[in-house]
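To whoever is on call:

I kicked off a structure prediction for a single chain this morning and the downstream step that reads the tokens threw a length-mismatch warning. I double-checked the sequence; it's 552 residues and nothing unusual in it as far as I can see. Pasting both halves so you can look.
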Amino acid sequence: MEPGDPGTVAQQGQAGPRLLRLLAAFLVVNALLVAPSWIRIGWIDPPWVAFESGVLVIGFALLPIRWWSAALALLAATAVTAVALVGVGDSATWLSLGRPVNLYLDLWLLRSVGHLLSGILGSTVIVFGLGIVAAAVLVIVILTVARLLKPGSPRASPLSTRVAALALVAWASMGLTAAHLPAVERLVGLPAVQLVREQALRFWETREAQDRFALDLSRSRGSYADVPGLLARLEGRDVILAFLESYGMVSLHDPRYAPVVGSRVDDFEARVRAAGLDVVSGRLVAPSQGGQSWFGHGSVLSGLWLDNQLRYDMMLASGRETLIDDFERLGHRTVAVMPAITRAWPEGDRFGYDEIFVRENLGYAGPPLNWVTMPDQFTWSFVQRLREQRQTPLLVEVGLISSHAPWTPILPVLDDWESIGDGAVFGRWEDAGERPEDLWRDTERVREQYARSVEYAVHAMTAYAERYVDDRTLLIVLGDHQPAPLITGDGASWEVPVHVISGDPELLEPFIAWGFVRGAWPDPDPTVLGMDYFRDWFVRAYSAPSFREVDP
């Protein structure tokens, strides 16, 4: 084709728009691949360029328009969007749970996210609508990226083909030499390759961990059925194992929260002592951060380290006995009080509690408080009514949830416990406090509310203890996990406080022997054990001397 030929002129006329489309394709693909990491760190920071975006855009520029190249563009667009979606999930998991996402274990968390959103927004219909909108946005993104990647002319000119080939070679050369060029290495990354590689490694590591956990199950002692005098020191005593939501050591030591929570802990110690009670405190390491409270509950009950859903499910499926079985052998009636459970809970049946109380059968007639189904003070009041109604001693495991995000509204603790009844008294706070969607626009306000919610949780626990704990009661209160990294900052430990209260000081001596200290403030000694140590130690400490003297 000679210069001046209409075809040549047409190709020249198309060069500008085609170049703009290639640039748009590069910018869109690049943003999808690098932006998820910016979500995690909270600002735009290198790497700014995803090497894969250049390879894709230049590579597709070399292809002619064919049905297979259009299909390939759609496939590539779907892959890019999927990588971006997993990247966003990875950043969200870091921010909320303090760990990377593991697709092999965490896909089911989408259901929990939906549950959390429905609690915050107040309607499952809204959450369903948001899901439809999100799906529509994903489809639009995929189709847009596919259209941008799709080759733009049936037959590219020799010059444009050569230029694209040269650009691809140059881009590949830059990628191969980036490791030796610090400036380039800092600016250009391989986010898609890295993400796929990390997920593949986590998959194989998880499969290997599954085998190791099966071996741990076979080697560890799951049953104490043959132990004489099992938990004999607790015969006739009510034992309450209470988990305070998001009550981590950060609330006691971080200067952003300690002035609020620490003063309440001082008040807690003073009031329980004035009531004639004794308190000792220590720390344990929780198996999760920011959520998944059931890992902490399960680790304490089973004596196994349950830091992911696979280990938790395997423990349940194994038929392993837990602290619930130990107390049933002692003759206690075992009860779970879980106001956060709003759906079927087959795990509770597997643990074998004699009675299970969840939102639907707790008899709460007050308003829900965003995600929180009922305030802690009502839950404590319900626990006390159970104790007064049952003739046999109880083991009560209770999950307190007022300090669960979104940390609004914050209720006062009522002085008149007799007025609590079915919780209708809390109706006056139905629309109190900031709306979550307003509060969560300001990170500093969120942190303030976190401290206030934990202060409320400790206050409600204090009011219950001073009024209802006596020398026939052993109350063990511990955090279920540290709050999310948004609250703790990166790299925080996963330690939680543990307080043990009773009117009988002899009941607390085993905890002193274990390293706990008198008072409401845990010892800062850095030696801290995990929650999985609790069951075996507790059973030995409170059983007959003949068993306590036997090595584990």
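Update from on-call: the warning came from a stale cache, not from the record. Cleared it. Sanity check on the structure: The domain at 240-290+314-529 is CATH 3.40.720.10 (Alkaline Phosphatase, subunit A).
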